[in-house]
Amino acid sequence: MEQILLEPLEKTMWNSLPHPSIMKINCDIAVKYPKTLELLVWWSGNVLYALGRKIQGTSSPTTLEALAIREAVDFRISKGCMRVIIESDCRDLSKLSTETKPFL
């Protein structure tokens, strides 16, 4: 998979910021020019990480959103941050995460 790292784009503000020991991640995808995943990770209003990559084999928005979340979490773990808050606009994934045993 081809990876493209982007420069910080703009400053974004949230209504409430997490405790400094917790990383807040907002993942979103945009599908264009078949199967492109866009991933943005923000903290304290600053864009820290943005990645665009072509994903082969799926055009499912739910699958692409799940891949974006996994990529963001892997990135944060690689930077030593183990406590994260994940925000997603994907209703199916949000519903899965609130089930009693979401991964069984």
Structure write-up:
- The protein has 104 residues and is of the alpha+beta class.
- The protein has one domain: Ubiquitin-like (UB roll) (Roll).
- Helix content is 25%, strand content 28%.
- Strand 3 (36-43) and strand 4 form a beta hairpin.
- The N and C termini lie far apart (29 Å).
Strand content: 25-35%
Q: Major beta sheet, specifics?
A: 3 strands, antiparallel
* Oligomeric state as shown: single chain
Query: How many strand units?
Result: 5
Q: From the helix content, strand content and strand pairing, which structural class follows?
A: alpha+beta
- Spell the H/E element sequence: EEEEHEH
Key descriptive features of the protein:
two-stranded parallel sheet, alpha+beta, 104 residues, 2 helices, globular
Short description:
The protein has 2 helices and 5 strands. It has helices at residues 61-78, 91-98; strands spanning 4-5, 23-27, 36-43, 46-54, 84-88. It starts with a strand and ends in a 6-residue tail after the last helix.
